[in-house]
């Protein structure tokens, strides 16, 4: 019943943020609460909590490096660093963790973004350190859940974390947001997510009962044990729909995306970063690692519908982004568009497209995270904390670094070659073209739309004459430079040298295609190879071998 | 002819019930002989010892009953593993419930009227209050009620079951009428409960009469034997009698559970009764009545022919659907904490019935765990409600109305939801515990409620009732909305009027020593300085002269809340042990 291989890296990665969260929550409790408004922390006062949180998050990054070192990239398609312990034998649930390449990249994304979010939030919450302490503790608590959900190899464990993480996320939006309608946004988020999650619960139960009674044991819920069951086709389709609904709401995908813009508008940029860049990946990650292997037949059956919805998401998100006046809302809509790409790639059932989606989950996280955080820096410079694009103008003149990083992050979101998202988007397009050429042809204009919303926003906010309100704005300080620098560096590295990262996603992509029972279609689109040629010039030799 | 042969009685098997009932009788005697100043302590000690003793007896009997059910006096008392497990749940909940009942808070007053017989608003009532009288009869009454609850699921004889029903109901009617505050509401609640309860009892008895007419016996096993071989009874060829009889008996039991359409009493009674009694009643009565329901339903259903059994299933489906709908939809619009919890308890009754539609072992195991999870959360939640009070403003705090006669007096509970706004700043620990209980009731993972709901929905899906399970999860989603609304109110809504308080303002309104509910009874009532927050201006005038304050616990209630909170978390994170015990107990052997 108990099985583990080597050092329990993943459990440590789960437990450490909990420890850090507790330490953060307890730092300076009972001190630094003077009667007058502003709280001056003192050496061990509430202000020290953010240092504790940052150190905790950085230690987690160090632990992550250890996990990467223990991970064998040659075998990225199978689950590694596995641990299995009996948890609730009566229900067939185990504590089973392990990662494949995509899972590890998403863990890395979660763990990597948290210290940046903490740094970015350093002066948020109106200088109320006690409030900031609670915010940071909640962020670390959420980190533990995020790591768990990406490493869970047990459907019950996955479901438990999938639902439980809503609560800290809910408080991050509703309790610490900056928008006037944050409570409304938080409730909307919770109800959307719960409605999907509870429908999924029925499917989880039904899936368990599909296992013949004689075979049910204390480890029935292991993903591996539930894969390859012979399912009744109707039941399989219903269960697929229930799972897919939950993941589509989470992702978020048209037409169940409407909670997302409200959340990004009302939450702090840091919360949005974690929510959109990491938490929502649970949706696409779930489609890839649960929907496809558990319900291969139904996945093939549903693929045409899903592809149509994905294409609608891609275009709809992009068009609506152009029309937004609130910059955080705008970034939210761009994500709807990007999630459309990810879902399109997953449901192409080609190893190239699926691997592209795996990579895009990482790249989108970094580029959108950069957009949110840099936009947050810009908003912090506005005297009224306005989020409206129209209230800005000429910011680059006074804050050139701020403008530059925003442009880089935006261009990455618009898939400029040389930046991270380009690699994954081209993989998705090429992979999809082999199976759904029409879908790709319809979706390609989104690339142009992306350029429009990014450049238009940049032009309005950063170029032209500086508005009087922003005349005194400072450029990025050291803390903000660190945050923006790390993200921009990641975008450049992943864009120029994607080879090493591709090693992590290629094998899982092949495994997913195999699990769904499809084979790669022959390369019908010969020019595809030549279109990838300029990619190779940039030093991305790996591309060629993929095709 | 004149020889009376005493039946052999297995006293050990009856001990869980006997200990509690005997302690109840002893309590009545103590009431007469112990001097007034020592009465409360003596009664409380006796009650706790009796309930703990009963639990120990249950523990000692556990292994023995696992081997074979113990039948005493031909089935008048029948201890099955399931019945014993229900007794365990009732015992645990009663023990925690009594702790809340015993709480006197830092105000020095318990939740009960000094003299329940005094007419509200009379000089006599004032006199008793001034004299500091205490009504210690509540403890024997609770013991009698608990005794009835312990007997309820552990009998094969419908007449004994009826007696148990009355033994548990009558003390509860009285207890409902004894609230210290809002006494008219309390007495009205008791009267409603009594009248409707009597009506339900009548249905129950009529059902027994029909079953007896059919089978010529009131023993469930005997009825099953007649169903198998109709020729042994004169009316054995009329199975409609047993169907109608069974439905009437079920109606009586569903009334006690608070399932729709027999739920109408629940909100009024839960609201009017003294809050500690509400918690005790909600948790223990439901457990006992579900135990009896399972006993009757599962025994008879196995004997019924498929067509009749199907009729019973249709009735159960209808009850389950209706109950979930009523509980969640009506719960979503409540503005009073106790009423909201009452409707939530109705919704839970619906979920419990969902788990029972399969009428099999999986269902009974799921229901057992559910009862425990629900009982802990409910007692904890009502215990929290007892500590959140209104306090009149002192002169300079009053909102322009000049000095109030009784400055700074802690009044009754602040049960209007609007008054709970910003409670998180005044009492963070208490708020955390209450949020935990609400999350558990909502069925959020990592709390006991999730494992419980997972269990009942699994049982339903396994029995082929997946539409019920689907409806159940949708009802849960609606329920989450109103539970979370309360959490939002407590945690996220600032306690001062006028929209968003800036963080700095909020920080100053935190009392320096906001006494958490889990504090060990130190300190006086904290000076809750924030005025009661109201979401709407319309209700503002109503409470303009009171503020909401959290009174400190003197120990027992805080202990009970802590135990409930730990239990809810433990059952949520590591439920393996409890599920194994429930699995053992669910083996439904006659």
Automatic annotation (TrEMBL), chain B:
Residue runs in coiled coils: none
* Compositional bias (Gly residues): 516-527
Q: Which InterPro entries match?
A: NADH-Q_OxRdtase_suN/2 (IPR010096), ND/Mrp_TM (IPR001750)
Q: Where is this region: Disordered?
A: 510-529
Question: Which residue ranges does the record assign to the NADH:quinone oxidoreductase/Mrp antiporter transmembrane domain?
Answer: 156-477
What are the alphabetically sorted keywords of the record?
A: Cell membrane, Membrane, NAD, Oxidoreductase, Quinone, Translocase, Transmembrane, Transmembrane helix, Transport
Q: Topology versus the membrane, per the UniProt entry?
A: Multi-pass membrane protein
Which Pfam families does the record associate with it? Proton_antipo_M (PF00361)
**TM region(s), chain numbering:** 12-32, 44-62, 82-102, 138-154, 160-179, 191-215, 235-255, 276-294, 314-333, 340-359, 365-388, 429-452, 464-484, 557-579
Q: Where is this gene product found?
A: Cell membrane; Endomembrane system; Membrane
Reaction(s) this enzyme catalyzes, per UniProt: a quinone + NADH + 5 H(+)(in) = a quinol + NAD(+) + 4 H(+)(out)
What does the record give as EC number?
Answer: 7.1.1.-
Instruction: Mention one GO molecular function.
Output: oxidoreductase activity
| Predominant subcellular localization, coarse grouping | membrane
Q: Which family does the similarity line name?
A: Belongs to the complex I subunit 2 family.
Q: What does this protein do?
A: NDH-1 shuttles electrons from NADH, via FMN and iron-sulfur (Fe-S) centers, to quinones in the respiratory chain. The immediate electron acceptor for the enzyme in this species is believed to be a menaquinone. Couples the redox reaction to proton translocation (for every two electrons transferred, four hydrogen ions are translocated across the cytoplasmic membrane), and thus conserves the redox energy in a proton gradient.
Give the quaternary structure: NDH-1 is composed of 14 different subunits. Subunits NuoA, H, J, K, L, M, N constitute the membrane sector of the complex.
Record-given protein name: NADH-quinone oxidoreductase subunit N
């Amino acid at each position: 019943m108990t099985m583990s291989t080597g050092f329990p890296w993943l459990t440590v990665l789960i437990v450490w943020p909990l420890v850090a969260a507790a330490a953060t929550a307890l730092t300076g409790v009972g001190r630094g609460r003077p009667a007058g408004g502003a709280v001056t922390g003192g050496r061990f006062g509430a202000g020290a909590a953010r240092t504790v949180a940052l150190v905790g998050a950085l230690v987690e990054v160090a632990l992550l490096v250890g996990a990467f070192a223990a991970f064998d990239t040659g075998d990225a398609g199978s689950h590694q660093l596995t641990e299995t312990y009996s948890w609730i034998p009566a229900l067939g649930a185990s504590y089973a963790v392990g990662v494949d390449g995509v899972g590890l990249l998403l863990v890395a994304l979660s763990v990597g973004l948290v210290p940046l979010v903490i740094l970015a939030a350093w002066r948020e919450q109106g200088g109320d350190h006690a409030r900031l302490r609670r915010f940071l503790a909640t962020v670390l608590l959420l980190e533990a859940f995020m790591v768990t959900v990406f490493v869970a190899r047990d459907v019950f464990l996955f479901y438990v974390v999938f639902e439980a993480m809503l609560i800290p996320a809910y408080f991050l939006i509703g309790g610490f947001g900056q928008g006037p309608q944050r409570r409304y946004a938080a409730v909307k988020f919770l109800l959307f997510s719960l409605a999907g999650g509870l429908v999924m619960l029925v499917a989880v139960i039904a899936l368990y009962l599909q296992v013949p009674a004689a075979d049910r044991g204390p480890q029935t819920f292991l993903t591996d044990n539930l894969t390859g069951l012979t399912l009744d086709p109707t039941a399989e389709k219903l269960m697929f729909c229930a799972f897919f609904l939950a993941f589509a709401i989470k992702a978020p995908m048209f037409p169940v995306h409407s909670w997302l813009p409200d959340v990004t508008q009302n939450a702090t940029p840091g919360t949005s970063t974690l929510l959109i860049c990491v938490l929502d990946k649970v949706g696409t990650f779930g489609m890839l690692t649960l929907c496809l292997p558990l319900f291969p037949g139904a996945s093939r059956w549903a693929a045409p519908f899903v592809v149509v919805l994905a294409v609608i998401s891609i275009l709809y998100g992009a068009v609506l982004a152009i029309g937004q006046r609130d910059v955080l809302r705008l970034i939210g809509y761009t994500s709807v568009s990007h999630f459309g790409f990810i879902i399109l790639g997953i449901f192409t059932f080609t190893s190239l497209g699926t691997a592209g989606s795996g990579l895009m989950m990482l790249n989108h996280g970094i580029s959108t995270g950069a957009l949110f955080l840099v936009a947050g820096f810009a908003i912090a410079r506005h005297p009224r904390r306005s989020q409206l694009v129209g209230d800005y103008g000429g910011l680059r003149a006074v804050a050139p670094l701020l403008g530059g990083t925003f442009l880089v992050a935006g261009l990455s979101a618009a898939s400029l070659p040389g930046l991270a998202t380009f690699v994954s988007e081209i993989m998705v397009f090429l992979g999809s073209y082999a199976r759904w050429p029409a879908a790709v042809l319809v979706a390609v204009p989104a690339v142009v739309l992306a350029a429009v919303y990014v450049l238009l926003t940049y032009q309005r906010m950063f170029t032209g004459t500086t508005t009087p309100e922003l005349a005194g704005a400072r450029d990025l300080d050291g803390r903000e430079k660190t945050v923006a620098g790390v993200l921009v560096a990641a975008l450049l590295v992943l864009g120029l040298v994607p080879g090493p990262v591709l090693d992590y996603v290629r094998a899982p992509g092949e495994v997913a295609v195999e699990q769904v029972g499809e084979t790669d279609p022959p390369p019908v689109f010969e020019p595809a190879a030549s279109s990838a040629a300029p990619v190779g010039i940039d030093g991305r030799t790996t591309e060629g071998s993929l095709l | 002819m004149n020889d009376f042969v005493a039946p052999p009685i297995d006293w050990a098997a009856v001990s869980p019930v006997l200990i509690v009932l005997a302690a109840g009788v002893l309590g009545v005697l103590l009431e007469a002989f112990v001097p007034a100043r020592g009465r409360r302590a003596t009664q409380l000690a006796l009650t706790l010892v009796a309930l703990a003793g009963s639990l120990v007896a249950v523990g000692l009997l556990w292994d023995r009953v696992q081997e074979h059910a113990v039948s005493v006096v031909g089935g008048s008392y029948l201890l099955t593993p399931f019945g014993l497990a229900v007794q365990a749940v009732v015992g645990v909940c009663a023990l925690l419930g009594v702790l809340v009942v015993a709480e006197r808070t830092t105000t020095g007053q318990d939740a009960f009227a000094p003299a329940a017989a005094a007419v509200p608003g009379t000089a006599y009532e004032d006199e008793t209050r001034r004299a500091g009288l205490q009504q210690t009869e509540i403890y024997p009454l609770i013991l009698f009620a608990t005794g009835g609850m312990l007997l309820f699921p552990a009998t094969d004889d419908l007449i004994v079951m009826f007696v148990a029903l009355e033994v548990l109901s009558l003390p509860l009617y009285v207890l409902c009428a004894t609230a210290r505050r809002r006494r008219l509401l309390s007495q009205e609640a008791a009267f409603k409960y009594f009248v409707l309860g009597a009506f339900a009892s009548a249905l129950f008895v009529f059902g027994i009469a029909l079953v007896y007419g059919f089978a010529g016996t009131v023993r469930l096993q005997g009825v099953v034997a007649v169903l198998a071989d109709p020729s042994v009874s004169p009316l054995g060829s009329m199975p409609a009698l047993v169907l109608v009889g069974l439905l009437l008996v079920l109606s009586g039991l569903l009334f006690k559970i608070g399932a729709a359409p027999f739920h109408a009493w629940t909100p009024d009674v839960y609201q009017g009764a003294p809050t500690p009694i509400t918690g005790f009643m909600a948790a223990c009565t439901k457990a006992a009545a579900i135990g009896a329901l399972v006993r009757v339903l599962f025994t008879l259903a196995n004997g019924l022919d498929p067509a009749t059994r199907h009729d019973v299933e249709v009735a159960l489906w209808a009850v389950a659907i209706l109950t979930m709908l009523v509980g969640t939809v009506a719960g979503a619009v409540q503005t009073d904490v106790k009423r909201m919890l009452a409707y939530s308890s109705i919704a839970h009754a619906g979920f419990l019935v969902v788990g029972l539609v399969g009428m099999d072992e999986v269902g009974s195991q799921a229901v057992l765990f559910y009862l425990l999870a629900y009982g802990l959360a409910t007692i904890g939640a009502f215990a929290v409600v007892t500590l959140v009070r209104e306090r009149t403003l002192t002169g300079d705090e009053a909102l322009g109305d000049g000095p109030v006669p009784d400055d700074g007096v802690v009044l009754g509970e602040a049960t209007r939801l609007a008054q709970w706004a910003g409670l998180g700043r005044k009492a963070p620990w208490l708020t955390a515990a209450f949020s935990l209980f609400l999350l558990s009731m909502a069925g959020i993972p990592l709390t006991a409620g999730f494992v419980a709901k997972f269990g009942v929905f699994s049982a339903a899906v396994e029995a082929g009732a997946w539409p019920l399970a689907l409806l159940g999860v949708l009802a849960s989603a609606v329920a989450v909305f109103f539970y979370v609304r309360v959490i939002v109110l407590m945690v996220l809504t600032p306690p001062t009027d006028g929209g968003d308080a800036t963080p700095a303002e909020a920080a100053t309104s935190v009392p320096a020593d906001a006494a958490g509910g889990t504090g060990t009874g130190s300190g006086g009532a904290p000076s809750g300085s924030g005025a009661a927050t109201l979401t709407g201006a319309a209700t503002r005038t109503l409470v303009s002269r009171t503020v909401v304050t959290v009174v400190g616990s003197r120990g027992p209630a805080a202990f009970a809340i802590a135990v409930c909170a730990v239990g809810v978390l433990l059952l949520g994170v590591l439920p393996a042990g409890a599920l194994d015990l429930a699995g053992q107990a669910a083996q439904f052997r006659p």
